[in-house]
Amino acid sequence: xxxxxxxxxxxxxxxxxxxxxxxxxxxxxxxxxxxxxxxxxxxxxxxxxxxxxxxxxxxxxxxxxxxxxxxxxxxxxxxxxxxxxxxxxxxxxxxxxxxxxxxxxxxxxxxxxxxxxxxxxxxxxxxxxxxxxxxxxxxxxxxxxx
Length: 146
Fold this sequence. Notes:
Elements: E1 2-5, E2 18-20, H1 23-33, E3 36-38, H2 41-73, E4 76-81, E5 88-93, H3 95-104, E6 114-115, E7 119-121, E8 123-132, E9 135-145
Parallel strand pairs: 4-9
Antiparallel strand pairs: 1-2, 1-3, 5-7, 6-8, 8-9
């Protein structure tokens, strides 16, 4: 039985892939659970069109992400923090603070996409921002005493 997968299944294949399975497995499990559909000629044409449209959207999203990454690498942030006489920060600088500073500069970046090591002292640091699948940007920021 030839079917088209609607979701990724680790043991069978990935989404929109046409595969052959035993008739009982397809008819009794995959199709009723919504994991697959029968691979008719019309279904194959629809899947081919969906793949083509998805590839076009993917290319546009990737181009936009690369443009944003280029802009973010030029950004330099200065973060003020209360410190002790030895240069230790009371508290720490985290991804929420960096997200707020980026918002002030006009970049709407979700705090969950910002990764950085723990910052507890005055100095220069880098944070990594995941913009899109494999596209990352490095943001340089400096922590100064207020």
